[in-house]
Amino acid sequence: MKLEEYLEKIEECPDKYLEINGNKSHRLTADFGVYDNFPILLRGDFNKILGYLEKNGFNIIDTYKQSSNYIGHRLTNNNGISRLQLRNYPCFDSFWPEFLMKEGFNMFAYIHGPSVDKWKEVKNPFPEMAKTIKTIGDYSMENKIKLAFPEIKDGLGNDDIVFYNPSE
């Protein structure tokens, strides 16, 4: 699925839960794979995307170093419902297709729901998480940087990878 189409669909997705095989699942999860710990691969300038996120309502709540070269930030949106981790190094889990490992990704983001305490209060963080994904997707298109989301459901039952390569 193309990035622009994916972002439009998550924005238009009804804010409701479904029952699937006896389990409750939000439509954003069932149709588009939006879930807590949603991973995104990026290729671009770490400080620029961090600045963009801060200009778009995200605040750094924590900074951590994996080593002297690898740094990460934990951020939250203004209402605290959507959080994300942004790292200046890629993380390739087993679900990523092999071809992506050759695309030069140099950053990684995890989209999270709210903290455990806030999750009890909010109960439905998925629309805010989708907005965070859209913010990063919009940045990718505006700045012409590579981006990839993991396999998702496209609403038709087809697994897919959202891979944006501005040079294609």
* Main structural class: alpha+beta
Kindly provide the radius of gyration, computed on alpha-carbon positions and rounded to a whole number of angstroms: 16 Å
**Oligomeric state, counting identical vs distinct chains:** single chain
Mean pLDDT: 87
Low-confidence spans: none
Strand coverage percent: 25-35%
Strand elements, count: 9
Distance between the termini: 14 Å
Instruction: Please indicate the count of domains.
Output: 1
Helix and strand run? HEEHEHEEEEHHEE
Overall helicity: 25-40%
Spatial strand sequence of the major β-sheet = 4-5-6-7-3-8-9
How many alpha or pi helices? Answer: 5
Task: Write down the overall geometry.
Answer: globular
Tell me what you see in this structure.
Helix content is 30%, strand content 31%. The protein has helices at 3-12, 27-32, 46-55, 116-122, 126-143; strands at 17-20, 23-26, 38-42, 58-65, 71-77, 83-87, 107-112, 147-153, 159-164. The strands form two sheets. The chain has a seven-stranded antiparallel beta sheet. Strands 1-2 form a two-stranded antiparallel ribbon. It is built from five helices and nine strands. The longest helix is centred in the C-terminal third of the chain and has 18 residues, at 126-143. The two termini are 14 Å apart. The chain has one domain. With 168 residues, the protein is of the alpha+beta class.
